[in-house]
Specification:
CATH topology of the largest domain: Chloramphenicol Acetyltransferase
Oligomer: single chain
Shape: elongated
Largest sheet: 7 strands, mixed
Number of domains: 3
CATH class of the largest domain: Alpha Beta
CATH superfamily of the largest domain: Chloramphenicol acetyltransferase-like domain
Helix content: 25-40%
Radius of gyration: 26 Å
Strand content: 15-25%
Order of helices and strands: EEEEEEEEHHHHHHEHHEEEEEEHEEEEHH
């Protein structure tokens, strides 16, 4: 009797997914927990594992098909599978002694690292030498995130998506289907523009105090907390303290109601190979700068490897995006619904400013605060941004809560 393999139950915010890859075919052996298929949603990629040891009996859905949670996509005939069974299945019977070439191939296979199907697919597509990939899985197994991490480090393979899709020849074109993540990003951006009254206010901040603080305590901070002190964690701390003083900004509209949140879940926009994602730092008000720094590093790394969970990229009460890392001097960030505010950080650039009637050069950064004018008034938005500027130009104020 066969066992049904079903699409995992999606969270409430996800209705369906795209079955992108089959890692097994009918007749293949499969172990309990081994990945049989990948399903891409508008947020993350699910790996569908087998619930039993056995033989794949049937594949019921083609690659590229849309599936819903609970839908049966494959059937497996349960069997007790051993490593010998797999070897016999993948080998060609022969009565002749193995040749020297065959023996050499066998020795090479013995030294080849174990690779998960999803990782092997990327390795084949990108023509990667698997021996160069650092394995982090159990028993030295190469995982998908190991390959993605390798691609991030290898500048020769880490080409922008637009470059890899660039058509050849004069006036050539190339049509590719939009990924579900890209489609969802487009949908949410249009939704934000159509449903919210978005307005942006600007200011500039002298980053010298923060840079001096960071330079003075960077080494001691790293020794004490085993994590590097960056700028974003300081901004998260400053934003959280400013939001405490302006609860109307840490709010959202639900129907005809305004929901004021008593917690501060800060989203950090991160670029990933699949597109922009916004992982959430939960309860930032309860965290030290060291805790925030560790969370940012962890979420950013797993965003790049595609291993974020749905819970980690869902929700949030306020967002921060940093176009400055790409050289942006000024921009108008778009809201991440249903949030009512987003802060845009930009490039730090030496500029002449006036202090005590003297022109001096200071490392300046433009700040952009986009907000939903339906529930946030202009005065409140401007005052919030000025408060944030004051915290950054005098960090002792937010540390002393004054």
């Amino acid at each position: 009797m066969s066992v049904d393999i079903k699409v995992p139950v999606f969270p409430e915010s996800v209705t369906d997914g795209l079955l992108t890859t089959w890692h097994k075919s009918p007749g293949d052996t499969i172990h309990h927990g081994e990945v049989i298929a990948d399903i891409e949603t508008d947020k993350v990629i699910f790996e569908v594992p087998s619930s039993v040891d056995g033989i794949v009996d049937a594949i019921l859905v083609e690659e590229g098909a849309t599936v819903k949670d609970g839908e049966v996509i494959a059937r497996i005939v349960p069997q007790n599978i051993t490593s010998q069974d797999i070897t016999e299945q993948n080998s060609t019977p022969t009565q002749q002694p193995a040749s020297t070439e065959t023996q050499q191939q066998a020795q090479t296979q013995e030294t080849t690292p174990l690779i998960t199907p999803s990782a092997n697919k990327i390795i084949n597509e990108k023509n990667i030498d698997s021996t160069q990939v650092k394995a982090s899985g159990k028993g030295g197994r190469i995982l998908k995130e190991d390959v993605l991490s390798y691609l991030q480090q290898d500048n020769t393979n880490n080409k922008p998506l637009d470059q890899t899709l660039k058509p050849d020849g004069p006036r050539a074109q190339k049509r590719v289907p939009m990924t579900r993540l890209r489609a969802r990003i487009a949908e949410r951006l249009v939704e934000a523009q159509q449903t919210a009254a978005i307005l942006t206010t600007f200011n500039e901040v002298n980053m010298q105090p923060v840079m001096t603080l960071r330079k003075k305590y960077r080494e001691a901070f790293e020794q004490a907390h085993s994590v590097r002190l960056g700028f974003t964690s300081i901004f998260v701390k400053a934003v959280t303290e400013a939001l405490k003083r302006f609860p109307g900004i840490n709010a959202s509209i639900e129907g005809d109601d305004i929901v004021y949140h008593g917690f501060f879940d800060i989203g950090i926009a991160v670029g990933s190979p699949r597109g922009l994602v916004v992982p959430i730092i939960r309860n930032a008000e309860q965290m030290s700068i060291a805790d925030i720094e560790r969370s940012i590093n962890d979420l950013a790394e797993r965003a790049k490897t595609g291993s974020l969970s749905l819970e980690e990229i869902t929700g949030g009460t306020f967002s921060i995006t940093n176009g400055g890392v790409f050289g942006s001097l000024l921009s108008t960030p778009i809201l991440n619904p249903p949030q009512s505010g987003i802060l845009g950080m930009h490039k730090i650039q030496p500029r002449p400013v006036v202090e005590d009637d003297q022109i001096v050069i200071r490392p300046m950064m433009y700040l952009a605060f986009s907000y939903d004018h339906r529930i946030i008034d202009g005065q409140e938005a401007v005052t919030f941004l000025v408060t944030l500027k004051d915290f950054l130009e005098d960090p002792a104020k937010m540390l002393l809560d004054i």
